[in-house]
Design brief:
The complex is a heterodimer. By secondary structure, chain A is mainly α. Chain A has one domain (2-157). In chain A, 78% of the residues lie in helices and 0% in strands. Chain A is built from 9 helices and no strands. Chain A has helices at residues 2-12, 14-18, 23-49, 58-62, 65-85, 87-90, 94-116, 118-122, 128-157. Chain A starts with a helix and ends in an 11-residue tail after the last helix. Chain B is mostly helical. Chain B has one domain (5-146). In chain B, α1 (5-33) runs antiparallel to α3 (49-69) and α5 runs antiparallel to α6. The chains are: A mainly alpha, B mainly alpha. At the A-B interface, α3 and α9 of A face α1 and α6 of B.
Amino acid sequence: MIDFLLNFSQGTGIYAFMNSPWGWPIAESIHFLGLCLLIGTVGLFDLRMMGFAKEISLSELHRLIPIGVAGYLLNVITGTMFLSTAPDQYLYNPAVQSKSLFMLIAGINMLFFYATTAADVHSGASSSRVVLRAKIMAGISLVCWCAVIVCGRLITYYRPPYHWCLWC
Amino acid sequence: MRESGVAFFSSLTLHSLSMAFVVGINFVVALRVVGFAPRLEIAALCRFYVIHWYAAALIFISGSALLLAYPAKALTNPVFYIKLCAIIIGLLISKRIQSTFSNKPDASIDSTCIKLAYLSIVLWIVTLTAGRFLAYTHSVLLASRFY
């Protein structure tokens, strides 16, 4: 796996860019910009579904989601650049594992939301069951994305992670 | 601060989280002002400024804590002052946009507002970039180096 990622990084020029003087911080800046776009769109949509700023139309606020998706794509691209350049520092890092888990939960939660609840929310259905389900999903989404940011900080900070890692 | 792993890490995390909310909200409002999602009411969107200002206060508190931990590292680095200026001007623009549109559903978007919105986007990108580059551009870590 490590060899595959390193070969990919070296073959695509990512390795050379990331090991240039400013490659890593440029990629980190873009990565955090993507996270901000995600929080600014998906996070605000979650807050609205949880009951904040009720005068805003959910359908209209949902038009901002493509910006969040663009932010997420920036994160995937730059995240791949980090991972493929230094795979040994990421693959076995419990903070990366935790971050991936929260991203997975957020992804499943999003799929579940669009499969079961989004249509009701957009049509303005206000039955207490729909509202409660939407609030719970929004809460899970918001907590997951905040946890992704926290774990992102943990990646570079706690090494070795004896203070918090329960499975290390 | 420097010796306590929990205190330093908590400040770092809080700084990142609150920065994500401040930048995210400013981006969304600025994008709306420059014409994205035109049916979305800016006045209603301004409701999120409540969260924005709480997050901005947390940026100030956590940033001060991080500065106290490594004062020489930041204060001797020009990038720190670029970040500080970008944040201050960015927040002043936020205040201006908020006062223009908050509780005023009929307020029109004039060219000054659009220019400020573009400037806001640029300034928050500068803030994020400077914040990341701070970790790579310092030439002094501890003030004890001078003694």
